[in-house]
């Protein structure tokens, strides 16, 4: 609890706080009275100094940052991830009011299930004229290949959400239904963790309902849908480029689901399998987080690159459960809102407890004339979400905001294409308090409420996802266009039960493996390790060049030239100036090359390598620790902001972060297959790069300075000097950096560790046989262990390098690019 440093002063806290004209307010009545359920929140904030309040809210911001919560904004120039915008004051709703919301959400979910079952089944609604055929057939989310197929479990909706707004009359209204793939649940959970950490005593004393019960019901429902002992459930994501990918990874981890992309799945004989490093494994249920149209390029959208070919066939055969069913997004169309009141009376025999905003589909007979007459008080929206020239795809086109030319264009759109547009009443959303740093101000908001279908009926999350506008415009908005998100506190009259996803003691089987590793995840971990190792080697070369460039010795200059030539050969820097224009000591050319490595756009430069590591890490976010994710993000920010620092200082800073990342992976990651693939990538890359360094710097004519440069880059100078009192000699150096398996920087060390990790990976072989990859790594290890320093020449080093590269290709072919025609299904169909 905030320490009360003074008597609560609501006057300064609420200075200037007034409900917006024509809008209701959650905190204050129209007469300026504080609603009773808000008094504890106001007392908590007003009883402390503003700086103390800000300090407590900073705890919530740190929680969000440390958890790596982000959101991708598409319409920015770089399209990058943005920190999650958290509004620190929760939306408070009394339990009695929430129960009415809950009842309305359950009623609406039941209604939509009836509608979907009819439209993909007997279609009596269209046949009897309750729904115009154009509203169904003209909707891009109506998927004809699914007509007549009954989902496994006979339910189209497993998770449903509705966006709510409170109108000026105080009633909640449905602004839109979310049945395609409702998002925001994971963000709602993170909001709760952050705000409850900032205000723990207030959270406890106000008896806020917990969220874990909802997720517990969701997980149990999915397990029941899967229907097999030992079944697998996946969360199907479009991939890291999606705006809410963080939530996909977060929910998969929280619910214990397998995070998969379309490329991870394959359909054989009407059964869906996930590609893993152990072969194909059957998957029994999918939580879908991509639009249905993209789910199957064979029968739906042929341009889709994120779907699963054959998924529709598997659904027809009822071998997999998909939540929500393909085609469920049909009921999200704004045009459908126009018919919901009548459909409720038809199916439920009653009025909607939560009415939606008044909507008219312009294609309905007799409606267009009424709309044109009342156009000034309406908003015009795309009827089916399709982009229409002159209309925004998201949000409403408020007619009152248009000038004369704009109004004329809008009338033309409505007249020329009435089937594609709908008219809605303009909703003036209610407002809630937002902390500005010194006081509270009212801001409009919308509330997304979630429900999950369980064997016992629908269960509603006691909380939700609240989006708060940045401006005082009390009309529809989206997170893409700015805004914040607030926690939703549903209060109880008494203490609430502690609910956890943890099972009861003695009711859980002990497990020491994390489930099957998808091939895509293994591939990303492998390359994450390689990118980090490649970046480290490049930085070590840059640091050695920076240190050696300050020395005036001619032999040192030759060694420096070899290192800079190596940077160019690696693709870390562009080609240097022509030889005839080069200064004797190449000081300017060397400086230009180092700048190019650290700031340029070459594929092998540091910005490109760190960028590739960040992108790869974002694809395996659920498998990396929070500290590792933050470290790679910090490194990316440093590369962009350190341009004015000397090269030596920059390389030192970056190498320290990379060393921390290596330590985190070594200390924090469980020794499962994912960790081994990352380590294999690191060891393989280091072995290859060490060979390349040795060929460049330890040739037969290498000078002592070149050999010393090799020791610098491989971080082996201390070991060499501790062993040898004489100067830097070629054979001892080659032995140390290539053959000494006690030197963690040597190729021998990498090959030994690589073989050990390889031996722990799954192999598909007959009884007593040696896996081909294991045979290759064992032969490499035997050769490096039996080679003497005197036997090393350029040909031997090049052969070793090529065999390591071939091993990389074999690992990719075996574990990442499985040939479906030969892939082994390693379990029965069940």
UniProtKB/TrEMBL annotation:
Ranges for domain Circularly permuted ATP-grasp type: 90-469
Pfam families: Alpha-E, CP_ATPgrasp_2
Regions that span the bilayer: none
Residue ranges of every copy of the DUF403 domain listed in the record: 517-816
Signal sequence, renumbered to the chain: none
Highest taxon listed in the record's lineage: Bacteria
Name of the protein in question: Circularly permuted ATP-grasp superfamily protein/putative alpha-E superfamily protein
Organism: Labrys monachus
Lineage: Bacteria, Pseudomonadati, Pseudomonadota, Alphaproteobacteria, Hyphomicrobiales
């Amino acid at each position: 609890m905030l320490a009360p440093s003074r008597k609560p002063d609501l006057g300064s806290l609420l200075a200037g706080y007034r409900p917006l004209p024509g809008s209701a307010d959650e905190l204050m009545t129209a007469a300026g009275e504080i609603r009773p359920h808000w008094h504890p929140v106001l007392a908590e904030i007003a009883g402390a100094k503003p700086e103390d309040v800000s300090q407590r809210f900073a705890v919530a911001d740190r929680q969000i940052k440390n958890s790596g919560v982000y959101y991708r904004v598409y319409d920015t120039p770089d399209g990058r991830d943005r920190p999650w915008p958290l509004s620190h004051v929760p939306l408070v709703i009394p339990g009695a009011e929430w129960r009415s919301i809950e009842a309305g959400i359950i009623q609406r979910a039941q209604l939509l299930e009836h509608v979907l079952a009819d439209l993909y089944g007997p279609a009596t609604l269209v046949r009897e004229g309750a729904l115009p055929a154009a509203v169904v057939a003209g909707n891009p989310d109506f998927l004809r290949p699914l007509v007549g197929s009954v989902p496994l479990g006979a339910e189209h909706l497993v998770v449903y959400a509705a966006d709510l707004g409170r109108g000026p009359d105080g009633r909640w209204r449905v602004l839109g239904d979310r049945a395609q793939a409702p998002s925001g649940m994971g963000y709602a959970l993170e909001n709760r963790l952050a705000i409850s950490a900032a205000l723990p005593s207030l959270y406890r004393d106000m008896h806020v309902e917990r969220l874990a019960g909802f997720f517990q019901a969701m997980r149990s429902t999915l397990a029941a849908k899967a229907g097999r002992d030992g079944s697998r459930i996946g969360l199907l994501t479009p991939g890291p480029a999606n705006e809410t990918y963080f939530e996909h990874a977060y929910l998969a981890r929280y619910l214990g689901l397998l995070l998969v992309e379309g490329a991870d799945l394959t359909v054989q004989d009407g059964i869906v399998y996930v590609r893993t490093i152990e072969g194909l494994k059957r998957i029994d249920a999918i939580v879908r987080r991509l639009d249905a149209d993209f789910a199957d390029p064979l029968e739906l959208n042929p341009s889709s690159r994120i779907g699963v070919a054959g998924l529709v066939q598997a659904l027809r055969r009822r071998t997999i459960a998909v939540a929500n069913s393909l085609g469920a997004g049909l009921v999200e169309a704004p045009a459908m809102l126009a018919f919901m009141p009548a459909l409720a009376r038809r199916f439920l025999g009653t009025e909607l407890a939560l009415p939606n905003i008044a909507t008219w589909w312009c294609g309905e007979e007799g409606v267009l004339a009424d709309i044109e007459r009342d156009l000034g008080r309406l908003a015009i929206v795309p009827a089916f979400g399709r982009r229409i020239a002159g209309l925004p795809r998201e949000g409403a086109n408020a007619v009152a905001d248009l000038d004369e030319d704009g109004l004329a264009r809008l009338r033309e759109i409505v007249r020329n294409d009435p089937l594609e547009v709908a008219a809605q009443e303009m909703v003036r959303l209610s407002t809630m308090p937002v902390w500005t740093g010194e006081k509270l101000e009212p801001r409009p908001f919308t509330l997304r409420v979630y429900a999950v279908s369980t064997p016992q009926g629908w269960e509603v999350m006691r909380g939700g996802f609240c989006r708060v506008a940045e401006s005082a415009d009390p009309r529809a908005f989206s997170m893409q266009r700015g805004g914040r998100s607030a926690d939703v506190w549903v209060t109880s009259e008494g203490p609430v039960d502690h609910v956890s996803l943890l099972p009861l003691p003695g009711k859980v089987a002990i497990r020491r493996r994390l489930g099957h590793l998808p091939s895509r995840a293994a591939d990303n971990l492998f390359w994450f390790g390689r990118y980090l190792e490649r970046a480290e080697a490049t930085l070590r070369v840059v640091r050695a060049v920076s240190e050696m460039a300050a020395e005036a010795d001619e032999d040192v200059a030759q060694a420096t030239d070899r290192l800079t030539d190596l940077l160019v050969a690696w693709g870390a820097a562009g080609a240097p100036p022509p030889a005839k224009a080069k200064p004797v000591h190449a000081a300017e050319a060397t400086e230009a090359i180092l700048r190019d490595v650290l700031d340029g756009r070459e594929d092998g430069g540091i910005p490109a390598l760190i960028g590739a590591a960040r992108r790869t890490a974002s694809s395996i976010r659920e498998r990396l620790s929070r500290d590792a994710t933050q470290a790679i993000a910090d490194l990316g920010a440093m590369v962009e902001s350190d341009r004015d620092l000397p090269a030596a200082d920059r390389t030192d800073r970056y190498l320290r972060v990379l060393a921390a990342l290596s330590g985190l992976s070594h200390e924090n990651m469980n020794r499962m297959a994912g960790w081994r693939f990352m380590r294999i990538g690191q060891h393989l890359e280091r072995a290859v790069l060490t060979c390349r360094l040795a060929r460049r710097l330890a040739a037969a004519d290498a000078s002592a300075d070149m050999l010393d440069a090799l020791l610098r880059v491989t971080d082996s100078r201390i070991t060499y000097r501790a062993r040898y009192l004489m100067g830097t000699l070629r054979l001892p150096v080659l032995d140390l950096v290539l053959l000494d398996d006690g030197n963690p920087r040597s190729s021998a060390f990498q090959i030994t560790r690589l073989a050990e990790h390889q031996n722990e990976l799954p192999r598909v072989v007959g009884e007593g046989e040696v896996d081909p990859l294991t045979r290759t790594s064992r032969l490499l290890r035997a050769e490096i262990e039996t080679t003497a320093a005197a036997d090393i020449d350029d040909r031997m080093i090049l052969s070793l390098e090529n065999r390591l590269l071939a091993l990389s290709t074999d690992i990719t072919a075996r574990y990442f690019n499985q040939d479906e025609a030969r892939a082994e299904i390693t379990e029965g169909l069940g």
